[in-house]
Structure formats: structure tokens, C-alpha cells
Write a structure and sequence with these properties.
3 copies of one chain form a homotrimer.
Chain A (H helix, E strand, L loop, with lengths): L1 H10 L1 H23 L4 H22 L5 H4 L1 H18 L9 H24 L4 H22 L13 H16 L4 H21 L2
Chain lengths: ~200, ~200, ~200
């Protein structure tokens, strides 16, 4: 079981991280919209917007048609996250503050920092480019969700949110620079990002 | 006459819809700026911005240089719409509320939903991608015009504005899925969008 | 000395103008952030954002991966401008109002109008496209810096700011239309833009 997971992760790290990120961020975005008492359509829109915004910006920066527009699977994964949030909201009054949602946000941040670093590296950008694209991929969804919810997008300036993705992107680049295979670099990026973010949340 | 129009429409639906949309949206955007008492330069800027914003975003999403930057004809068509608005304003104090402008807005919405669906289909995106690009192409101009006029961009959330373009995009995709030629799919998309929008306006 | 400079300018006008623009706009953006009492990290972010925003938008419009993500030299040049601003702030309480900063802003505006005109011409866009891309390249950085500093982005509507870049872009296009070599067209664009801007500043 663990062996199979590792084989998949090392075989196609982008697919694994992209799947995890889409479900996690759609769950978080939809939970925020549930909290604001949006109707079901609005909940789905905010969830999908949070799941897609970072990746669409990433794809525009490396000059390719956004994956969210090309792959039908992307929308289905986003809707899985939305359904999870709607299900959670049957039990919880404030699903966006539940520990499961907070962890999902950290996991999504790490997964999308990793997809950003992978795509940017494949596009042949500089080290600065890899870290920048990883960070934009990771924080873009949350920033757009806040704007749609009419909140201040200053979540971008929250200490240790974007910074975690920056350091994850640095870890990906550094792993590649010392000759690590792509799967290991992806694991390092995700581990650094999610670890730092959870420590930051735990310490308030 | 009708035969010639149909031949053109079925021959190059993109050119027909693009021409109609540019003139209509430039007219609407310029009329709004006239209402806000902008000077002539400001009226032209808002009119051209409303005419171009949706198509530029569409072209960026499918990774091509915006048509507005490549084709000199685009600017001329936009200026025709601006001139119409300036002409109307000599007779009307509130040209943006005149039935002709309201109809032009619905026609522009339908024309640009259709150009978006055509370009997205040519770019080989998914069904979700076709509907998304059609909608963004259709509503992008009005959203930017509102921002330039310092109004809330919540026109996007007006019931049955974006929704009309969504359903038009679905009609385009469905027509193609059952084997209809491109000209017929374009006609279906435009008819569904403009029909729904006019019904929505009539019912308030 | 002057001969060497001219040779470089005529040899690769893009490289010269891009270098000048990056240092100048990073200096201006960082000076504004110093004035607002941002910490060192914030000063560097605003400086780099002002240096890069116009060029990134330009590259997205002509469908290529942003140079700021591809070339490591870009970041170093931006950091030179940031360092200059931090150095100036040791002597000056309001470095953003010092004549050197005002001149740097005009010089950056001219340099980036020129890089925009060069890249747009190489991409084969229309005359309207050349002027539009030149203007966006020139004013994009200042607009983003104002947004990051939580000021109104209406600096775009300041008389004779964007207009100088528009006329510089027209000069570039006109020089090319009458058969002038690229280096001469670049010099004309830069001279027209910086000259008009400095006259506008001098006259208040």
C-alpha cells in the first residue's frame, strides 16, 4: 500500500500533488462560502475558484493553456472538494474553522507549491522563476477566494503563509540543484511547506 | 439579402459575431461613460475597454496574442461604437438607459459568448473550458467598464447576466456534440444568450 | 565613451533600456515603500514589483514566458535599485520626493515604453498594438506599486504620465514606418517620453 503510493508519487508527482491540491482547496474555499451563508451555486463557485486560480495563473505565466480548461478531471476533483465541504457543513456551524479545514488549507498550500515548482522547472525558468511560480500557484487560490468573499486580500501578508510556499519552492530548487530526482524534490517541497505552515498555525 | 447574411454567418461565424460584439459593447461602454460625464477621451477609453477586455482575456487563456493588438480593424470597429454613443448622447440625457443601448448590451453579450465558444473549441479545451471561456469573453467587458467607472463589479452577480452566457456556451457545446456545423452552433449560442437576456430584462 | 554607449544602444537597444528601466523603477518603488515605513522585506517586494509588473504584463500579452522569470540578471538589477533606495533613505527623510527619484521615474517610464515598443514590434502586432503594449509596459509598474501601497491607482489618470508613454510609442512606430533603424526608433521613443514627462513635472 505505502509502496504503491510512493511508486505513484515518484512516478508522476504532478498528478498526485495536483489531485490533492484541487480537492483540498475546493474544500477550504467552499467551507468559507458556507460560513458566509452563500447559496449552493455561490459555494461551488468560490470552491472551484479557490481550487483553480493558482494553477491558471501558473499556466498563463509559462505560456500554456490552463490545465483547468483542458482537463475535464480537474472540475470533477474540485466538485469532490465542494461536496465534502457541504457534507461537513451539515455537522458544523463554522466548517472553515474546523481543524480538518485548517489542515486541508496547509495541505493544499503545499501541494500547489509543489505543482508550481514542477511546471516552472519544466518550462526552463530561472531559480527565482521557480520560487515565484511555486508561491503564486500556492497562494493564488486563497487570495481570489478572499476577494470573492469581499474580504481584504491581506491574507497574502499574513506571516508564514506565503513564506511557507516560498521556502518550499526553495527546497524544490535546492533538491534539484544537488541532483535529487523529481519525485524526491517534490516530496521535499511539500514536506517543507506543510510542515512550516502547520507549525505556524499551532503557534498562532 | 437574408441569404447573403446567412452565407456569411455560416462561412465565418467568428468574424460576424466579433464585428457585432465590438460595435455593440463599445456603444454600451461609451454610453455609460457619457452618463458619468467623462470627457471625450474618457468616453473613448471606456468604450474601447468594454469592447476589448473580454476578447483579450479569452486570447490570453488560449495562449495567443490578443486579436485586439494584432488587427487594426478591431480598433476601428470599437471607434464606430464610440461614435454611435456620442451621437446618441446629443439626443438623450441618459443614453445608457435607452432601449437601444439595453438591446445592444444583450446583443454584445450574445456575440462575445459565441466568439469565446468558437475560439475555445478551436483551441481544443474541455466542455467546461468552452463554457468558461465563452462566459469570460461575454462578461469581461462589462466588468472592466464598471471598474473604470468606479462602480461595484457586482454586475457579475446580477441574476441572469453571466448565466445567459453560460447557457449560450452550453448550447454551443451541445450543438457541436450532436454534430451540428460550426455556423449552426454559433447561431444557437447567440440565440440562446440574447433571448434569455432580453426575457430577463423585460421581466426586470 | 559616448561612441561606445551609442554603439551599445544601437547594437541591442532592448538590453540597454531594460537595464535602465529595472534599476530606475526598483529605485522609485522602493523609495515609495521607505516613505510608507515598510520593513526591509516590504521595501524589496514593492521595488521588485514596480520593476517587473510592466514587463511581465507585456510578455503575457505577446504570449511568451516573462523575462523576469527566465533571466536571473533581472532580479539582480532590481535589487541594485532597491539597494540604491535604501542607501538614499539614510540621508533623506522623503526619498520618493527627491529630484533624483522624480528623474528616475521619468527615465524608467521612457525606458520601459521603449522595451514595450521593441517587443511588440518583434511580435508583429498592429500599430495600435505597439502603442498599447509600450504604454502598459511603461505604466504597469507604477500602478501595481500604488496598489501595494494601498493608494488609489488613479496615478494612471494623472495628466501627462501615461500620455508621455503613448506619444513615445507613437514616435517608435512612426520612426519605424519611415524606415529608421531599430536603435534610432528606440532613441526617439525614449527621448520623447522622458522629455515630455520632465516638462510636465517641471510645469507641475
Amino acid at each position: 500500500m505505502t509502496g504503491g503510493l510512493l511508486a505513484t508519487l515518484f512516478g508522476d508527482p504532478f498528478a498526485v500533488m495536483n489531485t490533492v491540491g484541487l480537492v483540498a482547496f475546493a474544500l477550504v474555499g467552499a467551507s468559507k462560502a458556507v460560513r458566509e451563508e452563500f447559496d449552493l451555486f455561490g459555494v461551488a463557485v468560490v470552491g472551484l475558484a479557490m481550487a483553480f486560480a493558482g494553477g491558471v495563473t501558473r499556466d498563463l505565466l509559462v505560456s500554456r493553456v490552463p490545465l483547468a480548461l483542458r482537463s475535464p478531471v480537474e472540475v470533477l476533483l474540485g466538485l469532490v472538494g465542494v461536496a465534502l465541504a457541504v457534507g461537513l457543513s451539515a455537522w458544523l456551524a463554522t466548517p472553515d474553522e474546523h481543524p480538518a479545514t485548517v489542515v486541508a488549507d496547509a495541505v493544499g498550500l503545499a501541494a500547489f507549491a509543489t505543482t508550481g515548482a514542477i511546471v516552472a522547472t519544466d518550462a526552463g525558468v530561472s531559480a527565482f522563476g521557480v520560487v515565484t511560480v511555486a508561491t503564486i500557484n500556492a497562494v493564488g487560490g486563497g487570495a481570489l477566494a478572499d476577494i470573492l468573499l469581499d474580504r481584504s486580500p491581506f491574507i497574502l501578508f499574513e506571516d508564514f503563509y506565503a513564506s511557507c510556499a516560498v521556502l518550499g519552492g526553495v527546497a524544490y530548487w535546492a533538491a534539484g540543484a544537488v541532483g535529487a530526482p523529481a519525485g524526491l524534490a517534490a516530496a521535499a517541497c511539500a514536506a517543507v511547506t506543510v510542515g512550516l505552515r502547520l507549525v505556524a498555525v499551532a503557534r498562532g
